[in-house]
């Protein structure tokens, strides 16, 4: 009885602390291909939102569309012409959020974002000025790009065209667009101003929830794509004075000042830089006055495991760590990368030297990554276990193959996404992977000092095995692919499918095992 009372008290404390901490603190890291051991581009991202969240995986097939069809691009009624064919894609959905949804299409182009508050005027002001048409583009932007783009660069150019025509709806956002060959950061301001920067092959981009692009070379079309009046508009608005400010700095000019200087952002950027390069020259005090660069050159070669660990960081080994060696939950420390509001973390591994179905892998951890396990989902996977998908969008009355096929199903998709019936699908529903890993994280946090290491040891064994097996799995998949592509996809489907089920079952056993002190976990 004492154990149950203690756990309940701890769980309530965790919930209260979580409610008090700032939410929407997504963190992104993108490693260029020359910084990694296998030549892959690594795209790591956490999703952090307040309140109760759920996460489900969906796969939408390639579709043909009738002539004259339209695509509903927002909830306000904006409709744009549909292409004759839309590419297949995965949607890692977090209903009812607008932007905590990762998308990866059949060409391996992945999309994930960070909210960034800008200095631009409110939406209604820009609508009056004609800078926003029919509500502007927003939630559906990444889905539209996934349906239409074969490369990251092509997606950036398409996004620029859409923003030029309709305007961007939110205050600001960093949309990371990462393919097997190159990666881009598209930083958009409400209205019709944006800049995209290609992540260089020898650097690692670090992003929190503020604009990060600094210098912009408007003449370098290989590495920058920007609205033509980006600098002139900043001068016009009084955000940039060439004589006083010197070289144009996009982040400084367009970011909301209080957000750009917020410790929630600069502390996360600073710790990423310090982990990636121990000789990173900026002090914490310099980071706190908004001097963080767009990227860092790592002092060691990176692997998938390094990005996983970075997404699990709580400032260990620095003055910002208040957990006293994990005697207390590090999630009590504000502004950590892995925090109470983290409900999902993903590392997208992109290799261009093998078929995209094999070369693109989504390593996905549900809940807080420090007390979860990264499951490898190969892009060639054709189906997902029900516990990862059970709260389906087909409750709209449409099957998954019908969704997003025309303007009517787009409307149904959007209506369901933003009116998700949480009273039926609570995050504590342990019959779903999302709910189960969430519950496990809260149980660990209730007694972090005694529970964290037990869970970490068990999940580390599982992750280490997956990373060790990866070359063998991919070698066999490529051999099958040369003989029969469908057999290779079936093999990858079985591998990811049963690994994911194993992770779910282990999490169930851990939830029970943590009730017994000192018991070894599976």
Please provide a written account of the structure.
This protein is an alpha+beta fold and 522 residues long. The protein contains 16 helices and 19 strands. It has helices spanning 2-20, 123-128, 141-148, 152-166, 230-236, 242-245, 250-254, 257-260, 263-276, 284-287, 304-311, 356-359, 407-418, 433-446, 448-483, 485-513; strands at 28-31, 41-48, 56-60, 63-64, 70-72, 79-81, 85-86, 89-93, 102-105, 110-115, 168-178, 183-191, 193-198, 204-207, 224-226, 295-296, 342-350, 360-366, 375-378. The strands form four sheets. Strands 3-8-9-10-11-12-13-15 form an eight-stranded antiparallel β-sheet, covered by helices on one side. Strands 16-14-1-2-17-18-19 form a seven-stranded antiparallel β-sheet. Strand 18 (360-366) and strand 19 (375-378) form a beta hairpin. Helix 3 (141-148) packs across helix 4 (152-166), helix 14 packs antiparallel against helix 15 (448-483) and helix 15 packs antiparallel against helix 16.
Question: How much is the radius of gyration in Å?
Answer: 22 Å
What is the count of DSSP helices, taking H or I runs of 4+ residues?
16
Q: Beta fraction of the residues?
A: 15-25%
Low-confidence stretches: 1-22, 392-401, 403-409, 422-427
Helical residues, percent: 25-40%
The N- to C-terminal Cα distance equals: 25 Å
Query: What is the number of strand segments?
Result: 19
Mean pLDDT: 88
* Silhouette: globular
Largest sheet: 8 strands, antiparallel
Structural class: alpha+beta
Count of separate structural domains: 1
- Strand neighbour order, sheet with most strands: 3-8-9-10-11-12-13-15
